[in-house]
Amino acid sequence: MQLSPAPAALDGPAPIRGGRSVLLVATLILTVVAFQLNSSMISPALPDIAKQLGAPMDAVSQVSSLFFLAGAVGGIVLARWSDFIGRKRALLVVLALIVLGTVLCLVSPNLPVLLLGRVLQGASSAAFQISYVILAETLPAAVFPTVLGILTAINGGVGGVDGWIGGLLADAFGFRSLFVVILAVAVIAIVSVALAVPRDGEPSSTGRMDWWGAAALSLGLICLTYFVSTGSGQGWFAPLTLLFLAGTVVALLAFVAIEKRRRTPLVAVQHLRSRQVWPVIAVTVLTLSSVFAVINFTIVILSQNQAVGYGVNASTSALLYLTPPALIGLAAAPLSGWLAGRFGWIRMLRLGLVLSIAALVVVALFPFSPWTVFAMFAVLGVAYNGVVLTTTNGLGVLQSPSEAPAILPSMNGAAFGFGASLGIAIVAPFVMSGDFVLALWISVGISVLALIASLFLMPKTD
């Protein structure tokens, strides 16, 4: 059984068309670009950050992992909050966080201040999920899949140009120059949202935002991430590892208890148990933990490694291994959305996962062959950036409970940030020790689990 070709229009005002819709889509693209630049543009600059701030590379890996962990927390809280305060208002809050975090990164004298800025930037990941819901609430249902694909393509990088420019700027002017670009884009996005996004009407959810539930779930996600990263680095039975495990269990049990007592819960427990919801979240977490970590971390570090890697500089690394999958994904994502709308979102998701696994297996078999990796990353541009990211984001909107449209998009947004952070945390110890082959095979295994999780997914029937 598959989902209908296009989403039914969400309850609300009549869809907007013509020039207003074009302006809205352009504004939402700029908004998600402002967030995405903080992800893909920074990856090639990690070695320069370590050099300029005098920090070890394993500590600098937190520049990425903390960013995505904050995205896991901020994505679910801010996207769900938009059900109560309105989409436009929430987008402006998100962009304000980007500006504040970017300023901190720009002036940071040391790694701790930089990491604080990255946390604020990461918390703005709700830009994607809020934008997806705005599309579903304002555009005609027939054009939703294709436009969703356009926004989703940016989730894998801004056509690959951002990663390449990030490498060039890092090589020529140092990592701080990247944050100057990000700040300028974020300020322009704030002005555009203020002018182009429709005014907020009646809130989608009545009642109050569940801040206690948000705090408990956030604490659980943080403890879970550090449990995995600490276990990988210090051992699974180390005292600190077990402490994080205990924190995860306590926080998540508290979250369930809180949600059962709330009139307007952050996430209703019955939705989390539904096969319409949890497989979407599981696939997103596992896919990001595998494919994203390979593209944006393992191969980036391997390609710049002078001893066993390819020995290229940051800009060349970005041009060869970040630009192609992102550029190909930019073209493939709208087509993937169109195909999913006609042949089934779940069917297309599984196809993308199978192709992604096949490409990762080849990379793991031939990791020290630069052009083999290059070719497989081109395949991932279609399979992962194009098909998987489009269908997981589309399912996040389509499968969400009707009484709370932002619940599953916000959970899926958290899954994106959490999955990316978790994947880097899992493979970082092996990458930093030079065991790139093992890191890649771990990512292959995680991607197989994503395919298995997709087999449990059932389409929404109401």
From TrEMBL:
Ranges where the Major facilitator superfamily (MFS) profile domain occurs: 24-462
Cellular component GO terms held in the UniProt record: plasma membrane
Taxonomic superkingdom: Bacteria
Compartment(s) where it occurs, according to its Swiss-Prot or TrEMBL record: Cell membrane
Keyword Metal-binding found: no
Transmembrane parts of this sequence: 21-39, 59-78, 90-109, 115-135, 142-161, 173-197, 209-229, 235-256, 277-302, 322-341, 348-368, 374-398, 410-432, 438-458
Entries under Pfam families matching the protein: MFS_1
InterPro entries from the UniProt entry: MFS, MFS_dom, MFS_trans_sf
A single GO molecular function term of this UniProt record: transmembrane transporter activity
Keyword terms: Membrane, Transmembrane, Transmembrane helix
The name this protein goes by in its record: Multidrug resistance protein stp
The organism of origin for this protein: Microbacterium azadirachtae
